[in-house]
């Protein structure tokens, strides 16, 4: 499972401040409802593969957001501790999303440093 490109907290802050990152929270809906990184789109890891293969209109209807494009840069996936985020990043890369990156610090680090 090694080898997925990662993003650090300072880098993530910079990307978010400049509006250049799309964040995906791959935790369960219950976890995300209890708190997430502002601007993140919640797609549980169990749904991610089918979500990333949907037609754009279907994705928009289900998630109320534009479907990421294969060539988009800075598609950042995260979870609570890091495992599901890494799994999601690798899944997205396997599907051809070359800009998929893993925020390894995950929501736990975000809460500690940003809250």
Automatic annotation (TrEMBL):
InterPro entries: Rhodanese-like_dom, Rhodanese-like_dom_sf, TSTD1_mml. Residues 17-115 form the Rhodanese domain. The keyword Transferase applies. GO terms for cellular component: cytoplasm. Pfam families: Rhodanese. Gene3D superfamilies: Rhodanese-like domain. GO terms for biological process: sulfide oxidation, using sulfide:quinone oxidoreductase. One of its GO terms (molecular function) is thiosulfate-thiol sulfurtransferase activity. This is Thiosulfate sulfurtransferase/rhodanese-like domain-containing protein 1 isoform 1.
